[in-house]
Amino acid sequence: MRYTLASLDLWILIAVLGLAAVGLMANFSTSYAEGELEFTHFYRQLIWSAIGLVLMMSAITIPSKYYQTFAYAAYLLGILGLIAVLVIGQSGMGAKRWIGLGIFQFQASEIAKLTTLLGVARFLSDFPRDRDKIWVTLTAVGLTVLPMGLVLVEPDLGTSMVYPMMLFCVLAWSGAPLWHLLLLLCPIVAVVTSWNTTLYVVTLVAMLIIIFLSSKRFIPVILAAGILVVIGSATPILWNKLHPYQQKRLITFVDPESDPLGSAYQLIQSKIAVGSGGLTGKGFLNGTQTQLKFLPEGHTDFIFSAWGEEFGFIGTSGVVVLFLVLFYRGIRLASKCHNPFFAITAAGIVSMLVAQALTNLFMTVGLLPVTGVPLPFISYGGSSLLTWMMISGVLLGISLRWRDY
Length: 405
Hints:
Radius of gyration: 22 Å
Strand content: under 5%
Strand order of the largest sheet: 3-4-5
Order of helices and strands: HEEHHHEEEHHHHHHHHHHHHH
Shape: globular
Number of strands: 5
Structural class: mainly alpha
Largest sheet: 3 strands, antiparallel
């Protein structure tokens, strides 16, 4: 079949290019100081954007069936890359997350998100008649937990959070029973509610009732009760296993005023930047928090705050709209794909995008703890930008060929 540019989902393409353009503008602003341009960050991002476009176009031109054919091989390469990081990776800021490639450092955890999705999507599409079986769900969990665990060892808590969100969404999309999904939520529910005994008990009882009603069996209820009790009891141990900086981030999330000049400084300055932007912002290159360097990590974790200060509510709403366009068009594409692998892959891409974007956006306004998750397409960083451009190419390739398979 002959393809043309009109066959692509142009809304997805426009949204991706729009977000990348916002990223370049925001990085230009955060690189600008005292009227002089600090070339490093902006020009690196510009070069990565150009390379990213090439990768995106390359991913589009590759026949989508090859992603399905080589999904397991890609998954294995992703695992080997994560292992390589732990063995030969370069250390920095107390973590080992980068593989040195000459003048370029690459985060294997970024590309592993895509390879993990491809592996899980291939597995679920290989057993369409068995998706209501618990062994299928547990195998998908195992395929996800392995790379997630390797990322946690680096350690990179922020990136590891994307994996369970992606897994939950692809299982739901592929038709896993409700009680399977509730079992997956049990560890998270136990950790979040175990700090308050009343809340923990009420939530535990509610979860067990819902699981029984959805499964009509007692074994899932017993499994859920065991998970909730064990994880809830182990929460203090898990807390002590966190690094001190991670503990401080969680404490200041609950009480930012507890350390306003220390671990809460980033969050407080981020809120000031976003709030001071008002409706229309202070203007490009006129953000005081950004230009006077009060906003830490303004080019990476808190780039949305820098954008909000200079372009206000209108500018931040525009960014949110672009992400919503990607979400809507991605879900629409997944819903019309005849091939289960393409449908699950498209849904997984959208879930990863939304999970990572919401985590970053909520982090900058204090609705989630600071986790160091970059904003897709916008935050400074070659590994993140190149990976998301490549992921976008896979999604666009599916939009080009969804009728073929």
